[in-house]
Each structure stands twice: as C-alpha cells, then as structure tokens.
Design brief:
This protein is α/β, with parallel strands linked by helices. The protein is about 40% helix and about 15% strand. It is globular.
C-alpha cells in the first residue's frame, strides 16, 4: 500500500499507459502482475475493473443524480440487488462527507463537492489501484485540504496503491510516500518526498520550489531583442 506522486510532463500519458488506453512503444507496463502490453481488449476491460480513476475535473454524468453517478459502476459491472447498491452508495458518499447530496444533480454542487462525488464514484468497486489525474486543480485551499486528506484516508481504508499525477508539488509531497519526476521522456528523479526536496538536480529543484531562474526558462527562443527593436547598427 502506497501513494505515489508523479509530476512533470508526460504524466497524463502515464495514466493512459497504465489503463491500456495507449500501447507502450518501448518497454513494458505491468499492472497487478499482468503485462498490459500483451493484453487483448477483453483482458484490458477486465483489468480496468480493478482500477479506480478520479478524472481531473470530476467528469460526472451531468444528467444523473449524485446517487446514480456513484451507483453507475455497480450497476454496470455487478449483479448486486438494488437494495445492496443503495447501501453501498450511501456508504461511499458518507466516506466523502456527501451523503446528504444523493438526490442532487452535479450542477447543484460546488467544484470541491463535485470532486468528492467523483472520488466516491472512483472507489465504488473498492479498486486495488487508484489513479488520480490532477485532483487538486481549481480547488480553493480548504477543498484542496479536504481532498488530500480523503486520498490518504481512503488509500489506507482500501489497502490500495494510489498514483497521483499533479502539478501541485508541495501538496503532493505532503501526502505521498514516493515520487517520480518525469520530463521530456526521462525520469529525472525518484524517491521519498524528503529526497526529492533535497535533490541536487537543478531541474528538479526549480520545479519543486517554483524558482523563476533555472534551467527551465519562461522565455521562448527568439532573436536578440535589439534586432527586433531595430536597435542594431
């Protein structure tokens, strides 16, 4: 059981590779002891049922109630009676503090509430592996704190492994057990949050501490300014 943090470019590609949406051009992708590269479509769908995904902006079904959003996977992938599905849905909503919203449509929710409903839906089938795609994007500090605490608590309760892809580096370093830093197709650094904070690599340090000066420049390559301003002799 662990929470892994992934930052840097190529993070969304990583999720697609794990879920079998994309095929690796080189190397191997293993999920729960199975080689994703070798799976056929049927095997990929079966593997995905062991995954829970919380999308970047929730991706709730807008025309379904909160209750029906969380119940969707249970109805789609199990033969449970509706009475049992109801109890499970209420338990999942209780876990994220939103049992009282079960009859509401997503349009009636705040951004943070919608993200928590998406989290309840993601854990509906008690997945072995949780994938979080930018779970903190667009959230205010209070909602961000709530979501980060829920990720830690639910990971422990499920006994699962969670992969969090995020640009919110400091928030991620506070909750994850291990970090991978990817850039331009390379793994520049990996290790515990403490080792990443202390990394001597200037590219990693600039990203972790948000430094404006460093190997990653905000200036797009261009001609010298004096040429564009016609100041050159």
């Amino acid at each position: 059981m662990a929470i892994l943090g992934v930052s840097g470019s190529g993070k969304t590609t990583l999720l697609r590779l794990i879920a079998g949406v994309m095929r690796a051009q080189k190397g191997e992708v293993w999920v729960n002891g199975a080689l994703v590269n070798a799976m056929n479509q049927s095997d990929i769908y079966k593997m995905r049922r062991q995954l829970g995904v919380m999308f970047q902006f929730g991706a709730l079904f807008t025309d379904l109630s909160v209750y029906d959003n969380v119940a969707f996977q249970m109805r789609e992938h199990t033969n449970l009676p509706e009475s049992m599905i109801r109890d499970l849905v209420m338990m999942k909503l209780e876990a994220v503090g939103l049992r009282g919203t079960h009859a509401l449509l997503p349009a009636a929710l705040s951004g943070g509430m919608a993200r928590r409903v998406a989290l309840a839906r993601a854990i509906a089938l008690d997945p072995q592996l949780m994938l979080y795609d930018e779970p903190f994007t667009g959230l205010d500090p209070i909602a961000m704190g709530v979501i980060s605490n829920l990720i830690k608590q639910l990971n422990k309760a499920l006994g699962a492994t969670s992969i969090v892809v995020t640009h919110d580096v400091q928030e991620a370093l506070d909750i994850v057990d291990y970090v991978y830093y990817l850039s331009d197709g390379e793994m520049l650094a990996q290790g515990t949050p403490e080792s990443i904070r202390a990394s001597p690599d200037p590219r990693v340090r600039q990203f972790v501490y948000g430094e404006s000066e460093g190997p990653v420049t905000y200036q797009h390559p261009s001609r010298p300014l004096d040429q564009d301003m016609r100041l050159s002799a």
